[in-house]
Amino acid sequence: MQFEFFPSRTLTFYLARMFIVRIFAVLVMLVLVLMMLDLLATSGEILSVEGNGQAELWTYALLRIPQLIARFLPYSVLLATIITLVTLNQNSEVIAMKAAGLSAHQVLAPLLLTAAMVSVVSFGFNERVVTRSTATLKAWEAAEYGPVPEHSEVRANVYLTDGTSVLTAANMSGTGSNITMRDVTWYSRSDAGMILTQVRAARATYAAPGWKLEEAERFDVGTAQTQELPELVVGRELTPDKIELDTVDPDTQPFWSLSDSIAAYEAVGRRTAELRAKWWHKLSGPLSAFLMPLLGAIAAFGLARSGQLFLRAIIGMALGFAYFVIDNAALAMGNFGGYPPFLAAWAPFFLFLLVGETVLVRTEE
């Protein structure tokens, strides 16, 4: 019996290299297929804008691919785990390793180490690349695929409240007194929540106080009359500081910036459960790749000639996909306060860590 976690350097490099090649191959396959399907669904909207062409399609693809990589990298690790372990089992390599005195955990050790490295790379990629591409893509979609926003700080689909009244904007750029909103709509409502007037404008800037709507069109609900106004100031209680708090999007902010946003929310007594859950999930999400070799490990063991290898692969795949389902459900529960943020982000990870360890120990150790 070998007692070192990595008993053979040659075997460790052999398994790690095999595993990482399959992760990359599966990820490329998934991203290419999903990107083609995505382009089929959205290319009509992009090309319908005057002046858009092949360059804009490439721009959309370059902004969308990082999101697909971030979302499907854990799935790629799961599928690569099953492919790798099934191949090793069919070639009797697992039997040879166990005959040499390796335990099930030692057989999986190179795969777990590789998956841990993938998790670290995934975290850095998500926070440095995915957040920026997501911010730009959301703003571009809000602009209905018109001119590409120049700044990645542009925020899309802004929804702000001033008492009972509401101010919405398709996108917003800039900070402080230099904030500019486009495709703006102001809903003036009564205390009972009934809409009294609706004002639409192409652009809004800070008027200190309030927001100046330029070339506005006001519709009075009571009289059903429309009035053209060169400018109109609304939302006098909406300060730039309040707007920056109300427009925090955790998907477009990196881990370290989101920490500052949460602190700002807490300083003014705002609810932070949703932001906290997303903040914790920025850690637990990439770490899910580390779980995949453990959940797919059942495909590695058992005799290939027993006829149960395919069934074992299905069980490993089912465990992996069950994790993603429960992880998304727990995060949704955390977003509206059903679970504490830490529990919403980490409970699925630790639950399936125990499940994977239990299955591995009871069946192989």
UniProtKB/TrEMBL annotation:
InterPro entries: LptG (IPR030923), LptG/LptF_permease (IPR005495). The keyword Zinc does not apply. Keywords: Cell membrane, Membrane, Transmembrane, Transmembrane helix. This is LPS export ABC transporter permease LptG. The keyword Nucleus does not apply. The chain crosses the membrane at residues 12-37, 68-86, 107-125, 283-302, 309-326, 338-361. It is a multi-pass membrane protein. It is found in: Cell membrane. It comes from Altererythrobacter litoralis.
